[in-house]
Design a protein that fits this description.
elongated, 4-stranded antiparallel sheet
């Protein structure tokens, strides 16, 4: 399932008001997470987003890093297209984290016991590192801390 391309602008510093006609098919299938392609002046970025309800309207977050990557400013109009998010966690997991989980089943089971939002937060924690070896090291540290019973996101990547 995918939406047609549609034009939007930032509704707030980080938010985009979504047209009801675009999101209705996704909401009817209870798809509150979507894969998004954003287009502006020849640039394209792909991201995962949540369709969030506020009153009678629906929004998605579009943070400063996405705005910078696309090269948009608050008054710019740009295009979005939504796709069904078929990823397991609602975000792409790094190869490094996935490989470490494959080698440490106990830590993987602890990870799987968390809420979907907490899982995404952990995945984002690891994926923010640009160097592959750092993602591996942080993934190993994460697994060790999970097995020690540490569940606070602030402490998951600390050495104890």
């Amino acid at each position: 399932m995918k939406s047609p391309l549609f034009e939007v602008s930032l509704n707030s510093e980080y938010g985009i008001l979504l047209p009801k006609t675009i999101i209705a098919p996704f909401l009817q299938k209870n798809q509150k997470r979507v894969k998004v392609e954003a287009h502006f002046e020849g640039k394209t970025i792909t991201l995962h987003a949540a369709i969030q309800r506020r009153g009678d309207n629906h929004y998605m977050m579009f943070g400063k890093s996405n705005q910078k990557a696309l090269g948009i400013f608050p008054n710019d109009y740009f295009q979005l297209q939504f796709f069904e998010d078929d990823s397991k966690y609602g975000v792409e997991i790094s190869e490094e984290l996935e490989a470490v989980f494959l080698s440490d089943y106990e830590a993987y089971q602890i990870f799987e016991s968390f809420t979907d939002g907490k899982k995404r937060g952990i995945i984002y924690m690891i994926s923010r590192y640009k160097v592959s070896q750092t993602r591996i090291d942080k993934s190993i540290l994460l697994c060790e801390n999970l097995k020690k019973g540490i569940q606070d996101n602030m402490d998951l990547l600390k050495v104890f």
